[in-house]
Structure formats: C-alpha cells, structure tokens
Amino acid sequence: MSRRTAVIADDHGMYRMGLAFTLKDRLGFDDVEEAGSLDEALARLGENGDIALALFDLSMPGMASAASLAAVRECYPDLPIAVVSASENRNDVLEALAAGVNGFVPKRLVDADLVAALQAIVDGAIFVPSSMALGAAGRTAPPAAHVIDLTRLTPRQRDVLGLLVQGRSNKEIARALDLGHGTVKIHLAALFRHLGVHNRAAAVAAAAPLLAKL
C-alpha cells in the first residue's frame, strides 16, 4: 500500500515544520517532503510519484508570482495544489485561481480553520475564504494583452531558456543545470506559457531576439 505524501514549499523552516505536523497529525498524511524554493519543490514532485497534496508559498526563491504555478498544474493535472500565503491581495488570489490551483489559504487561519481548508482541498473542493471574496457576481478583470517580458522570468527559467535557444535537448538541459527531467519539463511549460507559444521552435523564435537585448 503506497504512503500518502505531501509537499510543502516555503522558505520559512519553522512554518514548514508546523504545517507538516498539522498534515500528519490532523489530516493523516504519512510523509511530508519540505522544500525551501520552487526549484526544490519541482524536484520533489519529479522524484516522488505518490504526492497527494502540494502547498506553495508565494514569497520564496524561484516563485515569480502565483502564475508560476500554471506550469505545475499543466504537468500534474490531477494533483491537489494550493497556495498557503501571508498575502491576502485579491490579485494574487485571482492569479492563483487562473493558474489552476485548488485553493488559496491565508497563513493567519487558526488551527481548526486551517485543517478544514486543507481537508476541503484534499477532498476536491476549491477553497477561498469568504473574507477574500473575488467581487460581486464573481467578476474579474478582462485579460491584458500578451506581453513578453523576459525580466519577469526566474533565474532558473532564464538558464533553461538560454540553453533551449542554443538548441539543447531536455536531456542536455537537465545535465547542464543538474536538474531532473521532470523539472526541466515544468520549466519549459512555464516558459511556453510566458512566451505565448506551444512548442520549442516557436519559443526559440520568440525569445532569441529578446535574449540578445538583455
């Protein structure tokens, strides 16, 4: 019988420790893998096929914004993913939900409410506290025109993009950056989304002129 494992990605070790205890003691998880950056979290997801929940902070190394989670959702379409953040900014909530997360959980929640929120997400619900409601009738702002801004990429994403433009394969990129193949795929998915393209050739065509100007 496989063990039920969660991943917590947050650069505050004490918070990870407390959240890990809650997941094990109150929600019945067998194991919790901790990560202090987005890259570390991606590696944990790529290494373990039994992950049943992934929780991400928004203010940690490698996390440009909640939109960074869209690539994680694309690569793990059935995995319950949630933001657990000190931020209660409405734009962060909207961006996270647009990226496909299953919930946005404020860190300020007391223990009982935190457990209820996480349990709802594990059970397949979309959780956003009523205090963070997204506006009357669920209206959101219209999408902005697509703009390519390579300065918004994380350093690791820029590294992957540079090697992609050089014509390197996924295997070569993984070897050059000491990354797992699954991690490279997630970074490429994030890059394709950022560039507004759907394949490697289009990504190179879109990014090469812009990289030359950086």
From TrEMBL:
Transmembrane portions of the chain: none
Listed Gene3D superfamilies: 3.40.50.2300, Winged helix-like DNA-binding domain superfamily/Winged helix DNA-binding domain (1.10.10.10)
Keyword terms, alphabetized: DNA-binding, Phosphoprotein
The protein's name: Response regulator transcription factor
PTM sites of type 4-aspartylphosphate: 57
Domain HTH luxR-type: 146-211
Domain of life (superkingdom): Bacteria
GO molecular function, one term: DNA binding
PANTHER family: HTH-TYPE TRANSCRIPTIONAL REGULATOR YHJB-RELATED, NARL SUBFAMILY
Keyword presence, Phosphoprotein: yes
Statement: the UniProt record of this protein carries the keyword Membrane: no
Single GO BP term: phosphorelay signal transduction system
Organism whose genome encodes this protein: Phreatobacter aquaticus
InterPro entries cross-referenced by the UniProt entry: CheY-like_superfamily (IPR011006), EvgA-like (IPR051015), NreC/VraR/RcsB-like_REC (IPR058245), Sig_transdc_resp-reg_C-effctor (IPR016032), Sig_transdc_resp-reg_receiver (IPR001789), Tscrpt_reg_LuxR_C (IPR000792), WH-like_DNA-bd_sf (IPR036388)
Record-annotated Response regulatory domain positions: 5-122
One Pfam family per UniProt: GerE
